[in-house]
Amino acid sequence: MYTRIITLCYRKIIDINVVKPWDKLVFDDSYAEFKIQAQQISYGTPYTSYAELLRNVPAAKNLSALVTPAISSYVQQLNETVPEILNNLGRRFLIFRQFQFELINSDINDKNKHQIAVNFFTEPLVWYDTISNYLLIGHLSQTTEDIYTHLFQLQPYLSIHSIKTGQS
Amino acid sequence: MERKNFLRSLIIGAASTPVLLNACKKESASAAESGSGSVTNAGSAASSNACAVAPTETEGPFPTKSPASYVRSDITDGRSGYKISIKITINSNCTPLAGALVDIWHCDAEGNYSEYGGSGMQSTNYTAVHFLRGRQTTDATGVVTFTSIFPGWYSGRATHIHVHVHNAAGSTLKVTQIAFPEGLGTAVALVNGYNKGLNGYTYNKSDNVFSDDTAGVEIATVTGSLTAGFELLKTINV
Predict the structure, then answer these.
(1) What is the C-alpha separation between A139 and A125, in angstroms, rounded?
(2) In terms of DSSP H, where are the helices of A15-167?
(3) Which of these, A79, A68, A153, A161, lies nearest to A118 by C-alpha position?
(4) pTM (2 d.p.)
(5) What integer is the mean pLDDT of B216-222?
(6) Mean pLDDT of A11-17
């Protein structure tokens, strides 16, 4: 059988307007850490925004990586389940083991400008079919005669991150 | 994965119904009776079976406040090298400063830092470590202690440890670096650059950060041995 194995990426955007507890904790703690790390990079320069630092101070490109440890324990609290993305039965169903934290905007002096994303990368999935607007996928390496599947719709901020085609 | 994870992913969804039901139940049970301000019903444990195993309930979806994974005293993270204990005292106006946050970071035996390099934009497995970086809060005597490995060196710099002191609100009090004593019989000479040797090493007097420190204010006291490990003591005035 001709198969397509895909991984998905969900880019969860978090900014000052979030209301859910997890989102707020990630917002607050990533901002506190950004402030700490960015001050040390902006030291001796007039720049306070992430964009300015990125343009003018080479070390600023590491800021996303430096802020990541502030939020990694929150990612662990998700128990490897991608938040918010539901299958057609209304259940969360995507498993991730990799994530990437990303600073979008921020400013040492203005928390309102802080905007970040957490990118979740799913485990490989087999894409069996496309039914109307829905993708029919199953987890990899199922050995039973009946293969268990999920039906779900692509939506904003959810995309196919990688694809591998082959025979199985 | 596969079937097990698939089943688990079903459970995640299915579990949400009982949560709601229980939540309603608990709310009605805790509705206060009107009356005097003292407890009239202390509650009673089910007496039928004192040894009954607690029922397994779904874990609530409530996130808890967690410190950054920088907060730790042992920052080794599996990096190999000679053990070093780093004890830093933070003073403000010559008196110990309690409650200050102290971040330190330094390179590994080969001269590499965590978080830097070409893979910065790769997705990370969240068990990924942030080696040789840590944060501690000063105690009443202004002291923080870290356990790490003796830093290696890289081209253009003398051996050093970065220090960033900030207050509890995250405002910078001081960004500085700690230099090491050098010359015959010092720890730098004993470690001898690990596998690299000291050929091409930048000494403090030529270092672009430490060269202006002719009084040696930035140089720590380092004692110990290769076998027993080293101890670094440094007082920083912010």
Answers:
(1) 5
(2) 21-42, 50-56, 63-67, 72-76
(3) A68
(4) 0.75
(5) 94
(6) 97
SS3 A103: strand
β-strands B83-92, B95-96: how paired?
antiparallel
ipTM of predicted assembly, 2 dp: 0.74
The conformational region for residue A79 under phi > 0 = left, psi -120 to 50 = alpha, else beta, is left
Average pLDDT, chain B: 79
Half-sphere exposure of A1 toward its Cβ, with a 13 Å CA cutoff?
7
Rounded to whole angstroms, the Cα distance separating B125 from A98 reads 5
CA atoms within 13 A on the CB side of B2: 7
Residue A133 distance to chain B (closest CA, Å): 22
**Which amino acid would we find at residue B188?**
V
The alpha-carbon gap from A153 to the nearest alpha carbon of chain B, in Å, equals 17
- B170 and A CB contact within 8 Å: yes
Q: Which residues of chain B are within 8 Å of residue A32 when distances are taken between CB atoms?
A: 170
B139 Cβ neighbours under 8 A, 6+ residues apart: B98
Q: How many CB atoms neighbour CB A37 within 10 A?
A: 27
Contact A29 B68 (CB under 8 A): yes
pLDDT in tens, B64-94: 888 888 898 999 988 999 999 999 999 999 8
Q: Nearest Cβ partner of A100 from B5, B64, B124?
A: B124
pLDDT average, residue stretch A82-88: 93
**Residue owning tokens 């309102």:** A112
pLDDT recorded at residue A161: 93
What is the Cα–Cα distance from B172 to A109, expressed in whole angstroms? 13
Chain B residues lying within 8 Å of A121, measured CB to CB = 123
Residue A126, beta-bridge partner list = A5, A138
Question: Is the CB of A81 less than 8 angstroms away from the CB of B12?
Answer: yes
CA distances (Å), origin A159, targets A6, A154, A162, B211: 10, 7, 9, 52
- Paired residues of B135 in beta bridges: B71, B103
- Model confidence pLDDT, tens digit, residues B91-124: 999 899 999 999 999 999 998 888 765 443 445 5
Who has greater pLDDT, B58 or B210?
A: B210
Strand partners, A134: A131, A153
Determine the Cα–Cα distance for residues B188 and B178; give it in Å rounded to an integer. Answer: 13
